[in-house]
Amino acid sequence: MTDQYSVNPALLRPFSPPPRLLMGPGPITVDPRVLRAMSAQLVGQYDPAMTQCMNETMALYRGVFKTKNQWTLLVDGTSRAGIEAVLISLIEPGDKILVPVFGRFGHLLCEIAERCGAEVHKIHKEWGEVFTPDEIETAIKQVQPKVLAIVQGDTSTTMLQPLDHLGEICARHGVLFYSDGTASIGGNPFETDKWQLDAVSVGLQKCLCGPSGSAPITLSEKAVATIRKRRHIEAGIRTDNHIAGSGRRIASNYFDLGMIMDYWGEERLNHHTEATTMLYGARECARILLEEGVENAIERHRIHGKAMAQGLAAMNLKLFGDQSNKMHNVVGVYIPEGVAGEAVRSSMLNDFGIEIGTSFGPLHGKIWRIGTMGYNARKDAVLQTLTALEAVLRRAGHSQTANAGVDTAMTIYTQEGY
Amino acid sequence: MTDQYSVNPALLRPFSPPPRLLMGPGPITVDPRVLRAMSAQLVGQYDPAMTQCMNETMALYRGVFKTKNQWTLLVDGTSRAGIEAVLISLIEPGDKILVPVFGRFGHLLCEIAERCGAEVHKIHKEWGEVFTPDEIETAIKQVQPKVLAIVQGDTSTTMLQPLDHLGEICARHGVLFYSDGTASIGGNPFETDKWQLDAVSVGLQKCLCGPSGSAPITLSEKAVATIRKRRHIEAGIRTDNHIAGSGRRIASNYFDLGMIMDYWGEERLNHHTEATTMLYGARECARILLEEGVENAIERHRIHGKAMAQGLAAMNLKLFGDQSNKMHNVVGVYIPEGVAGEAVRSSMLNDFGIEIGTSFGPLHGKIWRIGTMGYNARKDAVLQTLTALEAVLRRAGHSQTANAGVDTAMTIYTQEGY
C-alpha cells in the first residue's frame, strides 16, 4: 500500500550501536549480566512471578541502600524522576526547603523544588568544594525548613558531600533529610539508616552498572507518614474501603508516592503499568552489587579511581577540586593550556572508541571528567583509557613523560595488591 | 565482611520468569526482536550514534503516528508519563479542559488534569459505549475549553472512540485536541494529521509489541507554540544565548516538554539522561511496525480480534459492549452465571500458562478481558487460548458445544484467507 507517511527504507534496518568504552561521568557501559536479565520475556502485571520479582527487588535495594525501610521501591523513569517523585510527594506549596548547592545537581534540586511550589533556600559553595556540617546546621537554624535536600555526589564537580553528620542535625531540628545518591551509590559509602536519611533516590546508570530509566528510592517511616497524609485513590478504581488522607493532594499523579506505595504494597492498587524490563534490570543491578558485596564494590571503585586519578596526574595533568572529597568513581582534570579539549575527546571517541566527559556551567571547556564506575571500574578499562589518552595528548602537543600514566597506575595496582 | 543489611542468599539468584502467553489487555508478550534490540550495549548520551538513534526514532514514530510533526519523541516513563507530560505542558492552572469519559482511562485523564490545576469538565457515557461527535461539540460549545482530552481506546471497556470528526470540531472552536492512543495504536486506525490532532501520547506495551516504560508522543505546531511560551532553561546549564518564554513555568521539571524538546532537538540541551535501553526498544517497536506496514498490522489485529471474539461467542459466552465500536485488539466477555471468574483465570495461568484479564470499577467481577495484540495477534496464540479456555470452562461446569470456539475461529481464518 502507498502511504504518504512512509519512512526512508534505510531506517527500517535494526539499530546497531558502535562498540564504546564509556569512561565519562555516566551513563557507563552496562554490565552484560544486566543486559541479559533485561532480555527476559514479560510476565503479567499481577502475575505471582511479577509481584515476587517486585518484592525481591524491594528486598535487594534495602541491601543497596543499607536500610530496613519497608518502602524501598522503583520509580519508573530516569534518576531525576526519582528526585521529582520524592520532592513533590514531601513538599506542599509554600513549604520551606533548604538546598546546599555545590554543583549542577544542587541547582536541579532547587529547580524541581521550585516547581513543586516550595520556598527554596539555597546556600552555595564554589564548584570543587563541599559543605561542613556546621555550615548546614547554621542555615537550618536560620531557614527552619521542612526538608533538607542535598546531593551526595555531584558529577558536575566530582565532589562527594559527607552526609554522616547531617541526619543527626536534621533530626534535632525536626527536618526531613533527603539526598540524591545517583552518582555515588555503589562506589562510595552510603548508609541510609546509620545516617538517618528520610528519603533517598538514585539511578542505575553510574556505579550500579545499569542503563538509565529506573529510579530506586527508599523512604523512612517519617517520610511515609508525611506522604500518607496526602493519600489519594484514583477514580475508576476507588472503592468504599479506600480511605483518603486529609492533606493536600500531591500535584502529580505519576509521581504520587502514596499511590506508588499502594501499587508496590500488598494492596497492589493499579497505578502505572510497571516497566517490567527496567524492573528486571534494576533487580539485576542490585543483585550483582550484593553478590560482590557493597563494601567490596566501594573498595574496587576506590582502587580503580585512585589508579586513574594518579595516572592522569603523572601525565602532567592537573586534577580538579578538593581531592579529599572527591567521589571514587569520577575525576575532573584540567584541559592543558594549548590543547583543544573537544578535539581530544573526539579523537578518543572516534579513533579509540573511548568516551570521556565534557563539563557543564562554570567548568565548561575547562575540565574533562573521567569516570571509573560500575562495570568499567576495571583494570583493563583504566589502562586502556590512560594509554589512549597519552597517545592523543602526545599528538595534540601536550608535554608529558612517556608511559608515566600507565606506569603510575600499574604501581598503584601493585601497592593495592591487584 | 559482616553486614546487618545483607539479604537472604536466595535473592542473589538471577530472576527467571516463567513462560507465559499474555492474552490480557496488556502488557503483552514482547516481540523477541524488541528484546534483542534492547540487549544492545549503551553508547554515550551525546555520542553521534546516540543522537542518530534518537533522530531515527523520531522519524520512525512519525510513520507510526502518521504525522509530519517535527516534535515526535519519547517521554521516559510509562504511558501515563506521556499523558502527564502532555497535560502539564499544555495546561496552566485555571485552564479549562473537557474530558469525555467512557472508561477508566478517561477518569485518569481527569485525575491528571485536576492535579495540573485545570478546571476539569467531564461528560460521561455508560461503560461499553462511545460518544458521537455532536455530543462532544455540544459540550465544547458549553465549556469552551482550552483542551479536549480523550482516549482513543479504553481497555477498561474495550471500546474505541471514533476520533475522525473531532479535530475539525476542535479547530473550528479553537480548542487543542489531545488523545491518548496507548491501547489502540498499531492495532486500529490512527491518523494524527488527517484527524487534526494537536497532541498524542502512547505506550509500547499494547499493539506496539514492546514493554512498558517509554511513552512516544507527537505535538502539532499549535501545541508546540503553546508550550514554547513557557520555555525555561535549567540553572547550571543556562547561558546568555538562551531566551526564556514569558508564560508561567511548567509545574514539573521531568515532564516539561519544552525542555524535553530542547534535549531531542539540535541544541541537545541536557535534561534527563535518556533511558537508552528503552530508546532501543521503542525504536525497534516502530521499526517492526513500519516494516510490516501500519495498514497490514491493523488488518492483522482486525482478523485475529475477530477470530477471538467470534470464537468466544461460539462458546456460549456473551460479549461485552457495543461490538461496532470495539477495539480490534481486546474483547470483553461476561463471566458466565455460576462460574467463578478468578478461579478460571487462575487455572488458565497456572495450568496452561495463559494470562487473560480481569476488570476494573463497574465491570469488576463481571467480565474478563481477552487481548489479541502486538506479538500475540497470531493464529497460534488465539487458538491456544480458545482451546485452553474451553477446557477450563468445561471443568468449571459451563455449558457449551464442544470445539465450537476453535472451529468458529478456524472458519474465520479460512474466510479471511489465513
Give keywords.
13 helices; seven-stranded mixed sheet; Aspartate Aminotransferase, domain 2; Aspartate Aminotransferase, domain 1; transferase (chains A, B); aminotransferase (chains A, B); EC 2.6.1.- (chains A, B); globular; transaminase activity (chains A, B); about 425 residues; homodimer; alpha/beta
What's the topology here?
The structure is a homodimer of 418-residue chains.
Chain A: E1 21-22, H1 32-38, H2 48-65, E2 71-75, H3 79-90, E3 96-101, H4 104-115, E4 119-124, H5 133-143, E5 147-151, E6 153-154, E7 159-160, H6 166-173, E8 176-180, E9 199-201, E10 215-219, H7 221-228, H8 257-264, H9 276-292, H10 294-314, E11 330-334, H11 341-352, E12 354-355, E13 367-371, H12 379-395, H13 404-415
Parallel strand pairs in A: 1-12, 3-4, 3-5, 5-8, 8-9
Antiparallel strand pairs in A: 2-10, 6-7, 9-10, 11-13
Keywords (chains A, B): Aminotransferase, Pyridoxal phosphate, Transferase
Protein name (chains A, B): (S)-ureidoglycine-glyoxylate aminotransferase
GO molecular function, one term (chains A, B): transaminase activity
